[in-house]
Specification:
about 325 residues, alpha/beta, globular
């Protein structure tokens, strides 16, 4: 979906007077692409205390920030389920976002690549296309939505394939985006085949349906168990808080680091969360990404870790993580 994101942003942005509101924390492709096309990126913060929810007042603040920078908000990026934060927005919150976009004349960019990865029993994935279609006030809202073969139960990260859907986008704009895509010249044949397989899986009665369904449910149920095991293990650690992993493939816990660790990190020339993650890697072999790589509220520290380790390794993995964390906190307290 990365190429689709870039093409749609390129179609929207004419220059620095055009702003796109992007979430923090966020998958960095959006800020990078906006900068590449000489646009203005205005960050809005997800509400960690509310399960990484999206607050309309915060959207207004980010829109005003863009205005102060001399730019007009043209687009809003929403990643749902979230990367790196692992939340899944409620349909009520999604409707609020859609109606806000309509009032503010903002194009919605709906990153829905983790739509099959929803684990909490109280949540289910709902597409923004559906919310827009059923909205009484915003049924004509312009929206780009994105999906990929790299996530879900298919998980073919080694191949590149995805699609985006243009809802209520002017046909002339679609034509220009198609021209941009056509400059690639060479078809991504294997990626296109996999997109077709993902979009049209075996149906009941097909020869491969029973095996496909068995394998798909097996992968999903294992991911769901791993999501809970990881969040539970992180929440038991001293000075760590972790929201439930409702969706996607990640946990994004907040770690409250001792002052001594912050001082040691400064002496090493890195941020405190980077220092923590490097020490974790050196001592345990567990690879995580510091929260500073995704953006975070000033004065807070996080790291992103996945739920993709093999399920049989989880006892060892979580024990190693907890033991390292206890040593680290003790060393710098």
């Amino acid at each position: 979906a990365s190429a689709g994101v870039s093409r749609c942003l390129q179609a929207l942005i004419q220059g620095s007077a055009d702003a796109v509101l992007t979430p923090t924390p966020q998958y960095p492709i959006y800020a990078a692409a906006i900068n590449l096309f000489n646009g203005t990126s205005a960050e809005y913060y997800l509400n960690e205390q509310d399960g990484w929810g999206l607050d309309l007042d915060e959207l207004d603040r980010a829109r005003d920030q863009a205005h102060d920078l001399g730019a007009t908000a043209r687009g809003l990026v929403v990643i749902n389920p979230g990367n790196p934060t692992g939340q899944c927005l409620s349909e009520k919150n999604m409707l609020e976002i859609v109606e806000w976009c309509k009032r503010k004349k903002v194009v919605l960019f709906a990153d829905e690549v983790y739509q099959e990865n929803v684990y909490s029993s109280g949540r289910q994935f709902v597409s923004f296309r559906k919310v827009i279609s059923e909205s009484k006030q915003a049924s004509d809202l312009e929206c780009f939505s994105f999906h990929t073969i790299s996530k879900g139960m298919v998980g073919e990260c080694g191949h590149r394939g995805g699609y985006f859907h243009c809802k209520n986008i002017d046909p002339l704009v679609r034509d220009e985006i198609y021209k941009l895509a056509s400059t690639t010249l060479c078809a991504n044949t294997t990626g296109e085949i996999l997109v077709g397989l993902m979009s049209n899986p075996p149906r009941p009665g097909d020869p491969s349906y029973e095996l496909y369904h068995l394998e798909e449910r097996g992968i999903y149920e294992s991911l769901r168990r791993r999501a809970k095991m990881l969040a539970d293990a992180l929440s038991k650690m001293q000075d760590v808080t972790c929201n439930a992993v409702e969706g996607a493939m990640y946990a994004f816990p907040q770690i409250r680091l001792p002052h001594g660790a912050v001082v040691a990190a400064k002496a090493a020339g890195v941020s405190a969360d980077t220092y923590y993650c490097l020490r974790l890697l050196d001592e345990t072999g567990i690879c995580t990404v510091p929260g500073s790589g995704f953006g975070q509220q000033e004065g807070t520290f996080h790291f992103r870790t996945t739920i993709l380790a093999q399920e049989e390794d989880y006892d060892y993995l979580t024990r190693s993580l907890q033991e390292f964390h206890a040593r680290f906190i003790s060393e710098y307290s």
